[in-house]
Amino acid sequence: MSLHLGKGTAPKVRRYPKNNQTFTWQQFILPIVLLIIWQMFFELGLIRSIVLPPPSTVMKTIGELLQNGQLFKHLGFSLIRVLEGFSLAVLFGLTLGIAMGLFRNVYLWLDMLIQVLRPIPPIAWIPLAILWFGIDEMSKIFIIFLGAFFPILINVIEGISQTDHKFVEVAKVLEISRLKFTSKIVLPGALPSIMTGLRVGLGFSWMCVVAAELIAGTEGIGYMIMDARQLAQTDVVLVGMLTIGITGKCFDYMLKALERKLLRWKTTYQGA
Amino acid sequence: MSLLNHHPYLEINDVNKQFIVDDQIVPALSAIQLAIQAGEFVSIVGSSGCGKSTLLRIVAGLECDYQGTVTLDGKRIVGPGLDRGIVFQEHRLLPWMTVTENITLGLTESDPERKKQIAQTYIELVGLAGFESAFPNQLSGGMSQRVAIARALVNKPQLLLLDEPFGALDALTKIQLQQEILRIWQSEKTTMMLVTHDIDEAIYLGDRVVVMSKRPGMIKSIIPVNLPRPRNRTSYQFFEIKKAIYREFFHEDEASLEYVI
Ligand SMILES: Nc1ncnc2c1ncn2[C@@H]1O[C@H](COP(=O)(O)OP(=O)(O)OP(=O)(O)O)[C@@H](O)[C@H]1O
Ligand SMILES: [Mg+2]
């Protein structure tokens, strides 16, 4: 019954597209050049150390803070807060987003409320957060949650609403169940958008953790930065900033790796 | 479908269909009258935009807003159903599913072993052995179209609607798949409605060729193909039918017609 079309000539099909997301040398050139110029400005006496300490000083401070464990202590606290707040945001954002995306009525009931709450910056919630949750962990996690929740929610809804009508018709013609339609057609189609929501949400989490750590307390990268500012330790401020930058990048890298694995059917535009 | 029933298997009765585009009424189908017997193979030809896809979509149950009646086995069509399969003009494969997953998407069989077996049968049927775990973006247009055909076939529909299914195929593959469709038609007794822009294909496959006219889409004429199968595409009778269809298309004199063919 077979036609044997192309049989025998069929090449092995690679399931995973080429991994082209790893580090390349181009990425490092500009940061290194900037570091060199920055150092040179200091050596030439063009900037004062109190305004902008040179990379050499920052490196030394990193060494000190690593040795006395301060950096890891503060980073650890911030990291746990981000993970807690972000996880909650993922949980609620995904659940609510899927419910709103799939059920028109849920959307109609909630949309207005969400549209009004969304533009309020998480930082503006700090006074209320303190009144509601005190000055301890809970209020900080609440602020981070708020920061990550809305981007995730909006992107999940958006992704689901983008479901191609052509595929909806395919589902109708094949009479597949609502559950199968959701799990095999709607959600995989929404996944690129959902992943974008997660990445944006995680970025917001890091912004919010610093803001939240200004509330009170004596730990966290945000606290470390503010404390150093008061003591005019500009080098420590820079180390804190750098730590957030690098940690954020690492997290994003992990999400991107996950995205690549989940979206291996997709060919992305890499630029000309 | 029994002989006791006097109605045809599919009956399209005075169907009119309009689309509203920018508050303007765009007529797509006008006074379509067509009866198809169970097990019949009907080809539909007509120029681009004359409403062929729209007609198939109505029969598939995807367009419900039209005037007139369409009955299948005596019952009005109110929506899609597994008794009808459709191969869309574009392949519409889900990009995140492999060839096998796409083919088994609508399979009602639940036993995984059996499911795999059925998928394999149809993959081989359309000549895609070796590509089971390929994603659509790793396939050529013709290969994708063949997956779409397999997807429509797995549940063994009684009526198969084919919207230019071989459009993206090379001549050789096309001929092989045409023969495969004929084989399925003969063995499964599937009723076939095939839209094509290839007049040779329409004659080679169809018991009748429906010629549609442009805007609003109307049935210009229905030309029976009373040739025994397997048909010879180069025979004189084949050529005569082809000429009759071209004549419907162009309304031109014989002289220039000879030139076209
Ligand atoms: N969803 C729609 N909304 C508005 N107009 C439509 C829609 N679908 C089809 N039409 C119009 O209806 C007419 C018939 O379209 P249809 O797709 O049935 O043509 P066709 O005969 O299949 O053409 P082709 O051979 O190019 O595929 C066209 O004029 C088209 O513009
Ligand atoms: Mg069409």
From TrEMBL, chain A:
Membrane topology reported for the UniProt record: Multi-pass membrane protein
All residue ranges annotated as the ABC transmembrane type-1 domain in the record: 75-255
Entry GO terms, CC: plasma membrane
Localization: Cell membrane
Keyword annotations of the record: Cell membrane, Membrane, Transmembrane, Transmembrane helix, Transport
GO term, biological process aspect, one: alkanesulfonate transmembrane transport
Spans through the membrane: 28-51, 85-104, 116-135, 141-160, 204-224, 236-255
UniProt-listed Pfam families: BPD_transp_1 (PF00528)
Predominant subcellular localization, coarse grouping: membrane
Family, as annotated: Belongs to the binding-protein-dependent transport system permease family.
Name this protein carries in UniProt: Sulfonate transport system permease protein
Automatic annotation (TrEMBL), chain B:
Alphabetical list of PROSITE patterns matching this protein: ABC_TRANSPORTER_1 (PS00211), ABC_TRANSPORTER_2 (PS50893)
Listed Pfam families: ABC_tran (PF00005)
Entry keyword annotation includes Nucleotide-binding: yes
Chain ranges of the ABC transporter domain: 10-239
Single GO molecular function: ATP binding
InterPro entries membership: AAA+_ATPase, ABC_transporter-like_ATP-bd, ABC_transporter-like_CS, ABC_transporter_ATP-bind, P-loop_NTPase
Keywords (A to Z) from UniProt: ATP-binding, Nucleotide-binding, Transport
Transmembrane segments: none
Protein name as annotated: Sulfonate transport system ATP-binding protein
Species per Swiss-Prot/TrEMBL record: Heliophilum fasciatum
Lineage: Bacteria, Bacillati, Bacillota, Clostridia, Eubacteriales
